[in-house]
């Protein structure tokens, strides 16, 4: 029998659910009345009682993974047509939902900007407004099932309010967004650099407006409905192809599939996203660019943009942490040499990067910092820089926790 971590389609979910919980429990869950209202009144949004939600989450946490698997099984039983909106491999999807639920309870209304973006991003999946109700019904039924006797009317009310508030924010943002939900683009070429990175160039079929430092989500027909984020490594210029840096991870995920793409392949791009841009930073203030691995692509775009628009970046420092034998990018040395007053340091370990970030000359007063790389690198760099006195508001990086 499949384990709850690797069941991959609706039928397998259903078999797993029946095996795990018994047919009667499953039927009860599917029939459960959640009292789910048809729509939330946006003028009277309530976010649910924080204390009640936190207690409920703490109770559910030990079985959270099971709960999420149960939820998707329940959802696809209620509305089998929803299955086609999701990728074949549901494991990453379940992890995302779990992270989203945690953030929703822990962060509450302050999560609104993230939810707005999530709502806009869901347009590219073709989600219909009414499907949010089915998802909500299924979620409440799943929470109720796992909470057991602790599922009181008060707890249900808190979860309902929180879910409805989140969905209202997502739907409102989606309704106001008049940009295309996605763009088609044709692969021009890809060049393998080093052992396992490809520099991929694609041409969108219609203008794709973005800012240097932003990223795009990409989907390939070779792996339908799997969207992943990649920085756009060049600065925006009319009619210029977009460049992405993709490292093989060996799990037959999107990066591996993109490494096999052929000239002429059509892919889809989600709308450009991301806060790591030069917007709001003065041209003359000191800047620190910190890149880890293929996070270099974000810095490449920012450096090219600085070069084109504002002349020399003065003064600026670039720290790149990469694997031995890298940087992989054949443009790297020429580009960094061509930016006047840019001082560049290459390191090959987290420890050496930490030592550089601790060095006082790396953070002069008035500094703006731009970070891109593995999540662990972002976390440790933010901790080191803020404890060295760099204001949090001057450290720019993207969090992809709830990206769609
Ligand atoms: N491909 C893209 O367009 C972009 C990728 N990213 C993310 O950047 C990462 C890049 O992956 P790889 O190239 O495989 O990177 P990698 O695994 O080669 O790591 C790059 C460097 O990050 C540093 N690092 C790792 N963990 C650290 C920690 N805990 N503290 C401090 N430094 C640490 C290491 O020094 C390492 O050399 C991925 O997580 C990817 O999601 C971010 C932005 C854009």
From TrEMBL:
The keyword Membrane does not apply. SUPFAM superfamilies: Ferredoxin reductase-like, C-terminal NADP-linked domain, Globin-like, Riboflavin synthase domain-like. Signal peptide: none annotated. Residues 180-279 form the FAD-binding FR-type domain. Pfam families: FAD_binding_6, Globin. Gene3D superfamilies: Globins, Nucleotide-binding domain of ferredoxin-NADP reductase (FNR) module, Translation factors. It catalyses: 2 nitric oxide + NADH + 2 O2 = 2 nitrate + NAD(+) + H(+); 2 nitric oxide + NADPH + 2 O2 = 2 nitrate + NADP(+) + H(+). Residues 44-175 form the Globin domain. Its cofactor is heme b; FAD. InterPro entries: Cbr1-like_FAD-bd_dom, FAD-bd_FR_type, FNR_nucleotide-bd, Globin, Globin-like_sf, Globin/Proto, MRET, Riboflavin_synthase-like_b-brl. GO terms for molecular function: 2 iron, 2 sulfur cluster binding; heme binding; nitric oxide dioxygenase NAD(P)H activity; oxygen binding; oxygen carrier activity. The keyword S-adenosyl-L-methionine does not apply. Its EC number is 1.14.12.17. In the C-terminal section; belongs to the flavoprotein pyridine nucleotide cytochrome reductase family. Belongs to the globin family. This is nitric oxide dioxygenase.
């Amino acid at each position: 029998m499949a384990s709850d971590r690797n069941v991959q389609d609706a039928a397998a979910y259903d078999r797993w659910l029946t095996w795990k919980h018994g047919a009667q429990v499953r039927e009860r869950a599917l029939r459960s009345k959640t009292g789910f209202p048809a729509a939330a009144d946006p003028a009277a949004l309530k976010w649910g009682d924080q204390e009640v939600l936190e207690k409920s989450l703490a109770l559910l946490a030990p079985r959270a993974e099971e709960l999420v698997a149960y939820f998707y099984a329940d959802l696809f039983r209620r509305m089998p047509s929803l299955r086609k909106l999701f990728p074949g491999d549901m494991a990453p999807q379940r992890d995302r939902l779990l992270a989203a639920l945690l953030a929703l309870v822990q962060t509450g209304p302050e999560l609104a900007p993230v939810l707005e973006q999530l709502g806009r991003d869901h347009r590219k999946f073709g989600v219909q407004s009414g499907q949010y109700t089915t998802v909500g019904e299924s979620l409440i039924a799943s929470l109720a099932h796992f909470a057991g006797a602790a599922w009181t009317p008060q707890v249900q009310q808190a979860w309902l309010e929180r879910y409805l508030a989140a969905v209202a924010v997502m739907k409102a943002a989606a309704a106001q967004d008049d940009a295309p939900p996605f763009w088609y683009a044709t692969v021009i070429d890809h060049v393998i650099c080093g052992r396992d990175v490809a520099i991929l160039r694609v041409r969108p079929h219609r203008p794709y407006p973005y800012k240097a430092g932003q990223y795009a989500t990409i989907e390939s027909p070779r792996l339908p409905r799997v969207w992943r984020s990649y920085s756009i490594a060049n600065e925006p210029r009319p009619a210029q192809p977009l460049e992405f840096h993709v490292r093989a991870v060996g799990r037959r995920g999107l990066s591996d599939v993109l490494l096999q793409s052929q000239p002429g392949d059509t892919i889809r791009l989600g709308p450009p996203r991301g806060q790591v841009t030069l917007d709001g930073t003065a041209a003359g203030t000191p800047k620190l660019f910190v890149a880890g691995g293929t996070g270099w692509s974000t810095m490449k775009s920012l450096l090219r943009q600085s070069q084109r628009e504002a002349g020399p970046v003065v003064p600026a420092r670039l720290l790149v942490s990469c694997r031995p034998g890298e940087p992989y990018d054949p443009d790297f040395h020429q580009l960094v040499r061509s930016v006047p007053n840019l001082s560049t340091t290459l390191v090959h370990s987290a420890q050496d990067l930490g030592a550089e970030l601790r060095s006082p000359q790396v953070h002069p007063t008035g500094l703006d910092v731009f970070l891109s790389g593995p999540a662990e690198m972002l976390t440790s760099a933010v901790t080191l820089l803020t404890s060295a006195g760099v204001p949090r508001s001057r450290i720019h990086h993207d969090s992809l926790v709830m990206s769609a």
